[in-house]
Structures are given as C-alpha cells and as structure tokens.
User: Fold this.
Amino acid sequence: MRSFSLLAAILIMASCSQSNYSKYAPVYEKVVLNEVPDYSNLDYWAAHPNKKNPSDSTPKNVMELKEVPKKAVDVFFVYPTSYLDKTMPAGWNASLNDVKINIYTDYSSILYQASVFNEVGKIYAPRYRQANINAYYPVTKEDTVKAIAAFDLAYADVKNAFEYYLKNNNNGRPIIIASHSQGSTHAIRLLKEYFDGKPLSKQLVAAYVVGMALNPATYTNLKACEKPNQTGCICAWRTYEQGYKDPFIAKEKFTSIVTNPLSWNNENTSVARTANEGSLLYNFNKLIPKVAGAINHDGVLWTPKPRFFGNVLIRTQNYHIADFNLYYSSIRDNVATRVLQYLEPNDLEKPMNSLH
Assistant:
C-alpha cells in the first residue's frame, strides 16, 4: 500500500485544499470528545445514513439506475490511510481528534470512493484509529512489533463499529463490504471473522476489497467473484500501468485475487478503455469516459496509461490512489447488478448497460 502525492493531486485531492480545510474545520472541531470511539455517537462515523456526509454526493452526469431499488442494502465501508504524516505526531495510530485527517478522509475517500455505492445502499463508514502509513514499511524489529500492534488497534475499532452496526442498524438487511488500501487490510480480517463459513454470509451481496493483495487461500468458503451477477463473493484488484511490475509483488508467495472492473467476468480479462463509461478525476461532478482499460495480469490489474487532459504530469506507474476512481461508473453499475441478483435470484444475468 503506497501513497503518491502527485497522482493524488491530479486525481482526487482538489477537495482537500487548504481553502477547503478552512471552510470545513469548524464543523469538525467537535467531532470527537476522547480517543475511544463510541459508535452510538454519529460523530464517530465518517458516513452514516442518519447524517449528511460526502458519500451522499453524486457526479452530475451519472445516470440513474432506474431498475434498482433505492437504498435496498447496507454498505459497510472501511476507508484507506489518511494518517500520512511520517513524523507520526500522534504515534503509530491516528488521533480521532485530528481535524485535518477527518477532513482529508471525508473529502477524498468518502466522497470519491464510498459515494459509488450511494444509490443502492445505506453507507456506514466508521472513523477508526488507523495505523500510520509507516506501519506498512517497518525498518527494525521493534518497529515491526509496533506496526502489528497499530494494525490490531485499528482493526479493533473497525470490528467494534461493525458489531455495533449489526446490533443496532442492520435488522437482517443485505450487506456489501467495501474497502480500499488500509481499509482492505481490515476488511480481509472482518470477512474471515464474520462471514467465511458463518451464518452472516447469507446476507453478503458481495465484497469489494480493493487496493490490497488478497490470497484466495485466506478463506474456506468465500470465493472470488467470477461473473458480473455472482453474489456472496469477493472482488479485488490493484491497478498499475501496463507492463509495470512492482518489485514487492514478486516477493508475494501467492497470486492475488484479481477481478476485472470493466468486464467482471473471468472469461473476459482484457477490456479496452473505450468500454469504460466513466472515471472520476479531479472534478467530482464530472465523469470522463474512455480513461482507463483493464487487463488481469499475474495478481494485479494493468491499464495502459490513463488518457485525460493533464495525464502528462503523471510519472508514477502505480495507480493505487485511483483504484476506485478509474472505474467509478463500472463499479456503480456492477454493484446494482449484484444487488438485483441478490434480491431477485431467479433473474437472468443483466448486462450492465441495461441498468441505465
């Protein structure tokens, strides 16, 4: 899991400028009263159906999914790392009182990622004491011990939030688990503990566990999604420029699950960018078509360099920051396809464009 400030600036960080910090800071200054999250308090949720939040937003040129029941399922979304200060001013785990981190979280991942689920689902995204970005790259044995402890603390918050949600909000409704980056580190554990071979698996529409390697051997019963309308399964991908091989992937002892986020079909693992109906770049209100393709390759997802005005400024070949952004419209459509199949299991598979 890595962060690339230049790509982030081009793709999604316009909403996190200093001017926006000044605009939103007064709203966030009373977000939390202490360091232990109390999930009965809406202030401890970045997104929740009972509070207005950035996940409620929709790009202006998104077409309504007319055939899909609105808010028919619940979406439990675990956001990625926004505690990026490597000096770790709060230690190995983020402070829930950090106004800048909360604003950054809400106007990056909650706006640009969680919002993809907002038409079909009620979105629950808990604030949690996330591990610092350094926890992914410990140097010493002591740092390794501290990093593991940091992830465990972060997961404990996510787990407590999920248990609170199950007890107080779910009421037997279908569930989508969605996550990115560090959020996926925790979602992988959550799926193992609560869904794999467990009664709750019957409520799982699908899981979108994005931006992290996912060993298919992690689970006994949960499987990778192989068809666009398959339910009770897992979608996962990590995005890189076509031809690039990150050195750390070569060290992995398994081949990660890779779901093609344009075809969603194991029989069609290479899709040209012309089939991509809409990516979200620096302007949330506008989806741009034909930006990125999708090619399954040895445990990762490849795309030719994304095409859009300003792409010459992109130097990185790791598109981690844009795993959701590049395929926003396709993800949104696929979520609807799976929800329809879950609610009406005898329906024939519907092509994604029939939902427009």
In short: The first strand starts at residue 45 and ends at 47. Confidence is low (pLDDT under 50) at residues 1-21, 28-33, 347-356. The chain has one domain: 5-236+320-343. The chain is about 25% helix and 15% strand.
